[in-house]
Recover the amino acids of this structure.
């Protein structure tokens, strides 16, 4: 797949045989070409960072939900004790 070096989203020129990720577009003559070309390794790193952020956010949400459930249980037990 052809891509112009200006489509390569790195601060260097691409190496021959380097693995990349890209979108498919067309040139002025209707031929297919790669656009928004990025280094595969860079994209994998960004995805791993995003996944880590999502895991941390989900863990915090889970901890908050557990805390709130314990608070409700304590409130119910306190109320039951007062009624008893």
């Amino acid at each position: 797949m052809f891509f112009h070096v200006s489509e390569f989203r790195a601060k260097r020129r691409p190496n021959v045989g380097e693995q990349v990720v890209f979108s498919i577009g067309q040139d002025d003559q209707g031929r297919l070409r790669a656009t928004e070309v990025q280094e595969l390794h860079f994209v994998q790193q960004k995805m791993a960072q995003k996944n880590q952020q999502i895991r941390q956010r989900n863990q915090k949400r889970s901890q908050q939900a557990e805390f709130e459930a314990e608070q409700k249980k304590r409130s119910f037990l306190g109320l039951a004790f007062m009624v008893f």
Q: What stands out?
A: The first strand starts at residue 20 and ends at 26. Helices lie at 40-83. The chain is about 50% helix and 20% strand.
